[in-house]
Amino acid sequence: MKPTQYWGKDYYVGKIAEEYLQSRTHEKAWSIEEKIVEEWIQTIPQGESVLDIPVGTGRFLSTYLKARLKIYGVDISLDMLNEAQKVLTEDQNHDMCVLLQGDIEELPFANGAIDRASCIRLFHLLPPSVIENAIFELSRVVSKEIIIQVFSVYEPSFAGVIERTRLALVSQPVLIFKSLSLAIKLILKDVFSKMNLISSKNVNPSKTFQHSEAQLLRFFKKNDLVVSNIVTVDDRDINSYWILFPTRFYFLSKRKII
Fold first, then answer.
1. CA 187 to CA 70: how far, in whole Å?
2. The pLDDT of residue 186 is above 70
3. Spatial separation of the C-alpha atoms in residues 213 and 215, rounded to whole Å
4. What pTM did the predictor assign?
5. Mean pLDDT lowest for which of 2-6, 98-102, 237-241, 243-247?
6. Average pLDDT, stretch 184-197?
7. What residues pair up with 74 in beta bridges, in sequence order?
């Protein structure tokens, strides 16, 4: 299937790529993400191969190399790869890392060629039509384990919407009208979709996408991926429109075919 064209493919270039790291390190979620990924890396046996997609500016490369892992860093943006290359020039184990330009819908690896993969800060950039292809490709090339972070997981639950709204108002009272408006849209979306009056659409006025957790779980199962753990991240300091949608890390193991 031919890869889909969407805004995120052409966005991380030039100054956006150069300033990517410094513009995000202040986020509370950034340090939480690093802790989660670094703890995961410590569980991987030395010598195994890991696909880091998108590798971005090389955020986790030093940690991977310190753990003596073979790294394949893939990104759609050459400018982001150039930033990642700067990390490698300072690491004595740089020969254990290969940087490649690539698309998650068409990964340049053979079936089962990679032991494990991490996919951090990408799925919120992918339109729903791309998600299934991305999960298929990750499952195709990985033989053991995958971790996927998903910003803005959509949960059609009235109780969930109310709780997220409460958290939003506690952390950012100025967003009261915006939060309530989005909460109402969410509830109406769920009601109308169950009545088959509307199709699933992005209610976020920004360029990011929410994804249904139920749909994600179906795609995981369809591609022989077993959810071993789910970790929810507090991301309320990142983007006001994401407050009502939890961010989650899905830890996935490949199902053994008997």
1. 46
2. no
3. 5
4. 0.81
5. 237-241
6. 51
7. 100
Alpha carbon distance 97, 175 (integer Å): 44
Residue with tokens 């639950």: 157
Identify residue 43 by its one-letter amino acid code: T
Cα distances (Å, whole numbers) of residue 196 to 157, 165, 186, 199, 200: 17, 26, 15, 7, 10
Contact residues for 115 (Cβ-Cβ < 8 A; gap 6+): 44, 48, 49, 50, 142, 143, 144, 145
In 3D, which of 93, 112, 108, 89 has the Cα closest to residue 47?
Answer: 93
Rg (CA), the chain: 19
Task: Answer whether 210's CB lies under 8 Å from 154's CB.
Answer: yes
Among 245, 63, 88, which Cα is nearest to 165's? 245
User: By the 8 A CB rule, do 100 and 126 touch?
Assistant: no
How far is 66 from 83, CA to CA, in rounded Å? 19
Residue type, 223: N
Least Cα distance to 255 among 222, 232, 229 occurs for 222
